[in-house]
């Protein structure tokens, strides 16, 4: 489970709008090596604060500090569906069109096949994104409240 702390901004039935309190969900940016820096690059291109809609089975209140999480497998499955499937459709379209095309125009047919694969990949992404938006396995969820009285020691770099 990938977890991060967030503050609840708004509450609705079964869901909440939260804003992360930590700079990165993986907490690697606070380690001795400084992490990968991906969050810092993302902050350059983000003009407004990050707010996310998450599932709220606990019934949190506005202002609560909570821990949100998303299943490890959800990130991998989502990435595969968003990147791998459309890319494979483009390649398969190009290869199939080139295989069945007349020898004289095989390049033009390959381009047309790749374009067809691209259109099919776009349709796949639209279908998958609608399905994933309704699937709780792909949604971040509030796991628990942050205990304000809990003191946690972190290793400091020397």
From TrEMBL:
Which UniProt keywords are listed? Membrane, Transmembrane, Transmembrane helix
State a single Pfam family of this protein.
RseC_MucC
Work out whether the entry's keyword set contains Membrane.
yes
Q: Which InterPro entries match?
A: RseC, SigmaE_reg_RseC_MucC
Q: Which residues cross the membrane?
A: 81-102, 108-128
Domain of life (superkingdom) = Bacteria
Name of this chain's protein:
Sigma factor RpoE regulatory protein RseC
Taxonomic source organism? Sulfuriferula multivorans
Record lineage: Bacteria, Pseudomonadati, Pseudomonadota, Betaproteobacteria, Nitrosomonadales
